[in-house]
Amino acid sequence: MDKTLIVITGPTGVGKTAAAIELAQRLHCDIINADSRQIYRGIPICTAAPTAEELAAVRHHFVACKDLEESYSAAQFESDVLALLPSLWQQGECVVMCGGSMLYVDAVCRGIDQLPDISPEVRAAVKEKLHREGLESLVAELEQLDPQYAATVDRRNTSRVCHAVEICRQAGTPYSMLRTGAAKARDFRIIKLALNVERDELFRRINTRVDRMIAAGLEQEARSVYHLRHLNSLNTVGMKEMFAIFDGTMDRTTAIERMKKNTRVYAKKQLTWYRRDADVIWVTPDAAVTTALQLIGG
């Protein structure tokens, strides 16, 4: 059997963590977390991070390893995972990677375009403009620097807009000219499983998960990091709705329902993303482990 990375991905709330842990236990291997928010410390409820029991059941990597103030990217994740894998291959020929952050999964499986490192000065200048003039000003700048990318980017996604402006400023050339999208060769086999259930069942699971997060103390967790609400690490579903309560712009009932709706919208985006990937094998959560073991054996 060749060195094999088994990817367990799919929409939020579908049951990836449980399937990945069962598979890793069967294979006696580690799990690499590919959730861009679970990487951060201090917000385990909002990110539905693995519990203490789950972390004890299988060794996980890239869970709660960064402070909220630290910047991190898919490109850094690609580099860190590729640096880690050789030591994991020494323990066995399989590693499980679990998560639904599309760019993080693609970074490891396909690679990220080589982009210039952003200097502290450029990053600080873009951040300062964001705080002084708002996101709209950066969108306007991006339209001038790279109209092609500006036409396709989600203009409400602060992280992506800021990143594109940083690249344009740093490189002195449009971001779109540096994005080739060409897949990089990997020296290991990749089996990519995307978990899914019927739409009504997925939405029911999402709604139930949100209710459980509220019961587990999401509001208190959000309150503890409210003073850091400007950070990109907290620009995520769950925190944004809780912050709206604290800001007085949304009542509690509306915020919870909005959180459910926004999570469902994100799940649909994930499904759309992975349906475009010809390498994805679609399975139900119950069939994930059996399918993975069959594919490894095959």
The span between the termini is 9 Å
* Mean of all residue-level pLDDT scores: 94
Number of helical regions: 14
Task: Report the count of strand segments.
Answer: 6
CATH topology category name of the largest domain: Rossmann fold
Integer tally of domains: 2
Strand content: 5-15%
How does the overall form come out from the CA principal axes? Answer: globular
| Class computed from helices, strands and strand pairing | alpha/beta
Describe the model:
- There is one protein chain.
- The protein has two domains: 4-112 and 182-297, Rossmann fold; 120-178, Histone, subunit A.
- It contains 14 helices and six strands.
- The mean pLDDT is 94.
- Strands 3-2-4-1-5-6 form a six-stranded parallel sheet, with helices on both faces.
- Strand 2, helix 2 and strand 3 form a beta-alpha-beta unit.
- The N and C termini lie close together (9 Å).
- The protein is 53% helix and 9% strand.
- It is globular, with a radius of gyration of 20 Å.
- The protein is an alpha/beta fold.
- Helix 5 (120-133) packs across helix 6 (135-145).
